[in-house]
Write a structure and sequence with these properties.
Layout: H1 9-36, H2 42-49, H3 53-58, H4 60-70, H5 84-129
């Protein structure tokens, strides 16, 4: 006959330890993904921490942190400092781009004037024929 009062304390203790380990590995995965500058979402955290997505969705603190972080742009933790020469190169390229766009705008404005004049002439001719 089966034991009427089974001792489940060992099984319960193991389940608690397993859950705590999964939570800790999830937080560690989030930190590592942040430091690496990778996208943080439920898929990447679950694969990195080796837990299920359902586990992450089921824990409110993990879920809210992942939802918060997935809206942020990933960064690699480094601040990019530009030298003066690289800034000058960027400025020159932007000035060249502005000059090219100004030329293009002038051409389009001239073309627009020509087309408007042609349209006026055509309208006058059509009006005179009536």
């Amino acid at each position: 006959m089966a034991n009427a009062y089974p001792n489940r304390s060992g099984l319960q203790q193991h389940a608690i330890q397993k859950r705590e380990h999964a939570i800790a590995s999830s937080w560690t995965a989030i930190q590592q993904l942040q430091q690496a500058g990778l996208n943080i979402n439920f898929n990447t955290v679950s694969s990195h921490a080796k837990v299920s997505k359902a586990f992450l969705y089921g824990h409110d603190s993990l879920r809210s942190k992942i939802e918060e972080l997935r809206l942020q742009k990933p960064s690699n933790g480094r601040i990019q400092v530009l030298s003066d020469s690289s800034k000058n190169v960027i400025i020159e390229s932007l000035q060249q781009r502005v000059a090219n766009l100004t030329i293009q705008i002038n051409k389009l404005q001239n073309e627009n004037k020509t087309l408007q004049q042609r349209l006026q002439m055509d309208l006058k001719q059509n009006y005179e024929q009536l």
